[in-house]
Specification:
The longest helix is centred in the first third of the chain and has 26 residues. The chain has 2 domains: about 100 residues, Cytochrome Bc1 Complex, Chain D, domain 2, CATH 1.10.760.10; about 80 residues, Cytochrome Bc1 Complex, Chain D, domain 2 (Orthogonal Bundle), CATH 1.10.760. It is mostly helical. Helix content is about 50%, strand content about 0%. It has a two-stranded antiparallel sheet with strand order 1-2. The radius of gyration is 19 Å and the shape is globular. Helix 5 crosses helix 9 and helix 7 packs antiparallel against helix 9.
Length: about 210
């Protein structure tokens, strides 16, 4: 996402059909500006082709809202990233700087937009044997909150099945080093995992095409 301030609009009560049409057009233009900025890194419909950039199309509305709000409050780690597409005059940014420019209305619009899209799973290599082990670990420790292998958006926990492995690995390390906060119920299960078990989980999620 590129840092960009976009103002919201108000649909006045009692407006006639013509006013409603104008407001609808304004909303479309407004969301398009917001999405255009996000597309510079997350690509069209949030279907990122970059292994280090998460696929966000298909995430639930509450999850997108909570994520952007966490970035806005700087309660989630914000590593510096390069713009992948679009205007390269500004080469580096981070999600905290980006979220800071967004109003609550902007965040809600983006959440609704990406929740309406399909999650397009990454096509990536995986180790079948490790994936089998990862399935066992997931079913033992993760399935309760990340149901159906972490593929159900309505869990409001992001989507794991088919997400880019390098991105998930970055988030695993952020949790492990406490740069990103874990939910209290997740801590005892996550911190008992060793490196081999983490790799097994990553291979399991990568096995979904």
């Amino acid at each position: 996402m590129k840092t960009q301030k976009v103002t919201g609009f108000a649909l006045l009560a009692g407006a006639g059909l013509f006013s409603l049409s104008l407001a609808t057009g304004a909303w479309a233009a407004d969301i398009n500006k917001l999405v255009d900025a996000c597309t510079q890194c997350h690509e069209r419909d949030g279907a990122s082709h970059d292994p280090n950039m998460p696929i966000i199309g298909g995430y639930s509305e509450p999850y997108v809202i909570s994520s952007l709000t966490a970035y806005k409050k700087k309660s989630r780690t914000c590593p510096e990233i390069e713009y992948l597409h679009g205007d390269k005059k500004v080469k580096l940014t981070d999600m905290c700087r980006i979220a800071k420019t967004l109003s609550e209305a902007d965040i809600k619009k983006l959440a609704q937009y990406y929740a309406s899209k399909k999650f397009r799973r990454a096509n990536q290599d995986f180790d079948p044997e490790l994936a089998k082990k990862g399935q066992q670990i997931h079913e033992r420790d993760c399935e309760k909150c990340h149901s159906q292998a972490g593929s159900v958006a309505s869990d409001d926990s992001g989507i794991l099945a088919g997400q880019w492995t390098p991105y998930l690995k970055q988030q695993f390390m952020a949790f492990y080093t406490e740069k990103r906060m874990l939910a209290s119920k997740m801590k005892p299960k996550f911190y008992k995992l060793d490196k081999t078990e983490m790799d097994a989980l990553l291979n399991y999620y990568a096995s979904f095409k």
